[in-house]
Design a protein that fits this description.
The protein starts with a strand and ends with a helix. It is built from eleven helices and nine strands. The longest helix is centred in the N-terminal third of the chain and has 16 residues. It is an alpha/beta fold. The chain folds into two domains: 191 residues, 2-enoyl-CoA Hydratase, Chain A, domain 1 (Alpha-Beta Complex); 37 residues, no CATH class. Helix 1 links the parallel strand 2 and strand 3. The strands form two sheets. Strands 1-2-3-4-6-9 form a six-stranded mixed β-sheet, sandwiched between helices. Strands 5-7-8 form a three-stranded mixed β-sheet.
């Protein structure tokens, strides 16, 4: 792992920090490799309740390091950026984003793959691909309209304008906006809440949320299979017994 991606496992939460402040945390090919390694390790660790992605020094990330991208040889779907995106999209462990300051390009599209997003009041989101003659990535051309509607998605992707945290909240891109100086504490509180939950329950629920749209009867069947399996697990039985004991 490079010093540009910091990883810390703290009480069942893996904190992953973009740490390249002199370049506004712009992401290089090597940083993508480090990110992939970090989230794969978290996914394999059955004691991890969630991943937190955050920036440093008042910035989430300025997006891709364009100079680094232009120097990359033979960029294809197996290249580090796309390997990271494929891995992120397949995770069962919940992902929390803590967004402070600029979140540009992939700094915004990465949020579409997170399960909970907290933003500081000074957060600024932008998808400026159109200004560079590029197209959106990370499945954002599909996920963004599903999240905030076609017109708002078109506004963000065709105009490439920057939006503030309040607008991002109204668009459904973040769960909550807090004062920037309270963001770290709010993120820690949210992480602790997740860590107090059943890890198997968190991962199974996320897997259900990520399934493609299907007939209602098929989803009932899918949920029933997972529910029955969960009910047979010791953790669920202990939690139910404690609940009944409290009521008694």
């Amino acid at each position: 792992m490079s010093d540009f991606i910091l990883t810390e496992n703290r009480d069942g939460i893996v904190w992953i920090t973009f740490n390249r402040p002199e370049k506004k945390n712009a992401i290089t090919q090597q940083m993508y490799c480090d990110l992939t390694t970090a989230i794969e390790n978290a996914e394999r660790d059955s004691s991890v309740a969630a991943i937190v992605l955050r920036g440093s020094h008042g910035c989430f990330t300025a997006g891709n390091d364009l100079h680094d991208f232009l120097q990359a040889d033979g960029l294809d779907e197996d290249s580090p950026p796309f390997e990271f995106l494929y891995t992120l999209s397949r995770l069962s462990v919940p992902v929390v984003a803590s967004v402070d300051g600029p979140a540009i390009g992939i700094g915004t599209t990465i949020l579409l793959h997170c399960d909970l997003v907290l933003a500081g009041s000074n957060a600024k989101l932008a998808l400026p691909f159109i200004h560079l003659g590029l197209v959106p990535e990370a499945a954002s051309s599909q996920l963004l309209p599903l999240l905030c509607g076609h017109l708002r998605a078109a506004e963000l992707l065709l105009l490439g304008d920057t939006i503030d945290a309040t607008t991002a909240l109204s668009y459904g891109l973040v769960n909550k906006v807090v004062d920037s100086d309270q963001l770290e504490a709010a993120t820690a509180d949210l992480a602790a809440t997740l860590a107090s939950k059943s890890i198997s329950g968190l991962r199974a629920t996320k897997n259900l949320l990520k399934q493609p749209t299907e007939a209602v009867a098929d989803r009932i069947s899918r949920e029933a299979q997972v529910f029955i399996k969960a009910l047979q697990a010791d953790g669920a039985r202990e939690a139910i017994a404690q609940k009944l004991h409290k009521k008694g």
